[in-house]
Amino acid sequence: IIRLGQPEHSVITTCAYCGVGCAFKAEMKGNEVVNMTPWKDGKANEGHSCVKGRFAWGYATHKDRILKPMIRSKITDPWQEVSWDEAIQHTASEFRRLQANYGRDSIGGITSSRCTNEETYLVQKLVRAAFGNNNVDTCARVCHSPTGYGLKQTLGESAGTQTFKSVEKADVIMVIGANPTDGHPVFASRMKKRIREGAKLIVVDPRRIDMVKSPHVQAQHHLPLRPGTNVAMVTAMAHVIVTENLIAEDFVAERCDLKSFGEWREFVARPENSPEAVAAATGVAAADVRAAARLYARAGNAAIYYGLGVTEHSQGSTMVMGIANLAMATGNVGREGVGVNPLRGQNNVQGSCDMGSFPHELPGYRHVSDSTARSSFEAAWGVEISPEPGLRIPNMFDAALSGGFKGLYCEGEDIVQSDPNTQHVAAAMLAMECVVVQDLFLNETAKYAHVFLPGSSFLEKDGTFTNAERRISRVRKVMPAKAGLADWEVTVKLAQALGYPMAYRNPGEIMEEIAALTPTFRGVSYRKLDELGSIQWPCNDDAPEGTPTMHIDRFVRGKGKFIITQYVATDEKVTRKFPLLLTTGRILSQYNVGAQTRRTENNQWHSEDRLEIHPHDAQERGIQTDDWVGIQSRAGETVLRAEVSERMQPGVVYTTFHFPESGANVITTDNSDWATNCPEYKVTAVQVMPVMQP
Length: 694
Ligand code: SF4
What we know:
Blueprint: E1 9-14, E2 23-29, E3 32-38, H1 51-54, H2 57-60, E4 70-71, E5 80-81, H3 84-102, E6 107-111, H4 117-131, E7 136-138, H5 145-154, E8 172-176, H6 180-183, H7 185-196, E9 200-204, E10 221-223, H8 230-243, H9 249-255, H10 258-268, H11 275-282, H12 286-298, E11 302-306, H13 308-311, H14 316-329, E12 339-342, H15 349-354, E13 361-362, E14 366-367, H16 371-381, H17 393-401, E15 407-411, H18 415-418, H19 422-431, E16 434-439, E17 451-454, E18 463-466, E19 471-475, H20 487-497, H21 507-517, H22 526-532, E20 534-536, E21 580-585, E22 610-613, H23 615-621, E23 628-633, E24 637-644, E25 652-656, H24 664-667, E26 684-690
Parallel strand pairs: 6-7, 6-15, 8-9, 8-11, 9-10, 11-12, 15-16, 16-17, 21-25, 22-24
Antiparallel strand pairs: 1-2, 2-3, 4-5, 4-17, 13-14, 18-19, 19-20, 21-26, 22-25, 23-24, 23-26
Helix pairs in contact: 3-20, 4-20, 4-21, 5-14, 8-11, 8-12, 8-14, 11-12, 17-19
Bound molecules: iron/sulfur cluster.
């Protein structure tokens, strides 16, 4: 524990990094944090934290914070500090000019999973009510949008099914495309404890992550599949379950749609879907797939936890549905110890989706074409809402390049660093006439901005975050907004400057409006959150204290629906020119694009991104650990230092993406999920060669 003095008072709040959503006690002396202690009564973390959360306050008080609004006419001009009023009036007048010249749909907004529910709700309201279109999207587009789509199709609700605590009842844990030790450390500890107590572990991942074999846990089965072959793998597991009569017949008969089940059973039983038939594509021995499928299906309670290694593929949504199929077929839904559990990368991915920051959905996942849902918002907001979905983030970039999209309000998201194919994103930014960035720092996106509005850190926010287990927790302000206005106040003032009468006295009033208009949040209030500590939605008259486990007696959609998961190989093929596959992930001490963690103590433990490469591939190229290597893909090229590692399989290389200078997304491509446009970050064909130090 680092203590910078004796605290005078403390405030309970929520970590602003990953989707575990740990509760912390911020110990304060005046307006200064002297320590952050994990809160023992926090239901998501029970008094634990990781090295990211412990030091998070470092970035909030960092000298790089921009605390004055700034404007400039061209991105080559120097920034000019202005008052809040001037910056907001300037933004409003630029947006109105663009709409007058290029049409109502020529502007849009992007919000972030780092924003609170209340802030996100306001951004989508700003776009729908003040901009007058549905051009709003969230960074969940590039991470878990396939989860939202896939789980809604199969189970009926775009969310994980369990509590974190539920893992304590699991007999078999299957981790697919996730690295909980680095990405979700506090929950990883909970999983490992259960494994040490006797639960069996299956890991499906191209890389030999820590959980495969460490001093603490060892997996019974590691299926090190080739990147891009998830759907072949999950369908092969289903083949084993169907052909070896491991179906939970009673559960399926009672709870599932039998027509879709019959079609799915016939499909997965085909010989071409057997583990033997797909072994050449997946690279995994059929016997291992069969053994893992049997272990999962025969368990008393089997739980699946998955991450971006599932969603960030051209078949991300198909894979999510494949996972739901497995759980339904084996009866592993609707009680503790089982379920389908997405591990959300960012603190409020779940909430940003719940709050309607999608171009096709209003808060509560109701499609904009649903006239009943639309009319309730129209009555409350006093505007008409278009029944047509707006532009997704990649569509905004494409529209900017073809001349139809000219202005962007971007709150809390560094799209230039975090979205794939940086060259394409940068060209789109250059094509816009007014880019407004609201953030803590002058990030990569701000290089293309005409207006910079200072954001507020989690320590300056009042509101709520919703974690990966649907748990809504309070974020409490421990110090005044350093730039004078909190993020929600900026959005309100912008709406007013645009002529829309948005008005709230505090974020609690925003939550009251959310609860009134969103059936799954109807019983949520700050008073109840203070009483209960946190609430898992749905929370309404049927479940006044929330819903820890979903789909207990029936699926939200009624009968669980099986979906055919036809494997389609990605377009991103290896060739003689690009013979290796690059995949990406995170490391314990850094968080996403690193804008926050690079400005904390965490930087001392991991100060650069590296390329992990198997000894065989390294030897072929004359590469040793610490050598500089050039990585070239069809999209671009970058330079990193190498780390020769047995964690990799031959033919596959890996890097993290925490540093802008490494430019991981300079080399990722435009391929994306067929249903949601979530980018295929996890599969890029590359060549790697030694180079001189840059
Ligand atoms: Fe908890 Fe995640 Fe924050 Fe770590 S980063 S303290 S696991 S919420």
